[in-house]
Amino acid sequence: MEKDSSLLDDYVLSLTGAARPRVCFLPTASGDADHYVVRFYRRFSADCVASHVSLFRRDQGVGGVEEDLATHLLAQDLIYVGGGNVVSMLGAWRAHGLDSTLHKAWRKGVVLCGPSAGSLCWFREALSAFHGAPRRIRGLGLLPYSNCVHYDIEPARREEYRRFVAGGMRPGFAAEDGVALHFHGTHLERVVSSRPDGRAYRVEPLAGGAVAETPLEVSYLGADSPRSATGPHAAAATSSDRQLRYSTSPAAPTSSNRPRGHSTNPAASPGVHGNAAAGPPEAVAAA
Predict the structure, then answer these.
(1) For the domain bounded by 7-245+262-286, which CATH number is listed?
(2) CA 12 to CA 182: how far, in whole Å?
(3) Is 116 labeled as catalytic in the residue annotation?
(4) Choosing from 150, 182, 184, 233, which is the catalytic residue?
(5) Known catalytic residue: 72?
(6) Predicted TM-score of the model (pTM)
(7) Which of 116, 119, 146, 194 does the annotation list as catalytic?
């Protein structure tokens, strides 16, 4: 739902493998802002079976889901999490039990994605700067890394993220606006961008309090057609062309031992929305 491009949305939708994907929007981080919900339907209702879940509004409106949220979310091809206040969003999810439901959706193979707060939430740790100074937060933990978004437009956030990683925060990934990280299981599958010059980095601590910021290979979607993929996906920051493999746990699935799951749809995607068919969980996070 970028203002000037639909490349990231198109990429995520391509991962579902469905002709008319079922896509559900979670605008929790914005307090279920009306304008955000309207923007979602304008973008997705023509080509998808679109719906949304509001935790703050009694009047859900057309497409709103009020009962049995878990069953509805687990039947989606793609779950799209909007941006906003990630701390408030995670608190609301945990109060309503949606944190557990999203874990189940990921394991089932639903494609999970989102920008900003919708990227930070999937990681074990993340840097939030919505109100006040940047701070370290605990995410859902689907991806065993840390995450930082808006890496190009907020220099203070970038410096704080480097400081936190040097001080003990988990190593992780940072992305500039318009860049998305595509994870398959807990492995970074690809980094993609809606902008020709978009960049993303692997950020790790070094001895003596230093930090290594390694640029990742990024694929510009304007010159690359979206590819299909299957398996559980999660949304985070934009991803790259090179199939990178990072794992902090020996139990993390590899290309040869990934668990197989299934869903009613044949694909999973990293990015703004998603549900997946057979394969490990996938997530897509965008700055």
Answers:
(1) 3.40.50.880
(2) 9
(3) yes
(4) 150
(5) no
(6) 0.79
(7) 116
pLDDT per residue, tens digit, the chain (287 aa), is: 787 779 999 999 999 999 999 999 999 999 999 999 999 999 999 999 999 999 986 655 445 555 689 999 999 999 999 999 999 999 999 999 999 999 999 999 999 999 999 999 999 999 988 777 788 999 999 999 999 999 998 888 899 999 999 999 999 999 999 999 999 999 999 999 999 999 999 999 999 899 999 999 999 999 754 443 444 555 444 333 222 333 333 233 333 333 323 222 222 333 333 222 334 577 777 77
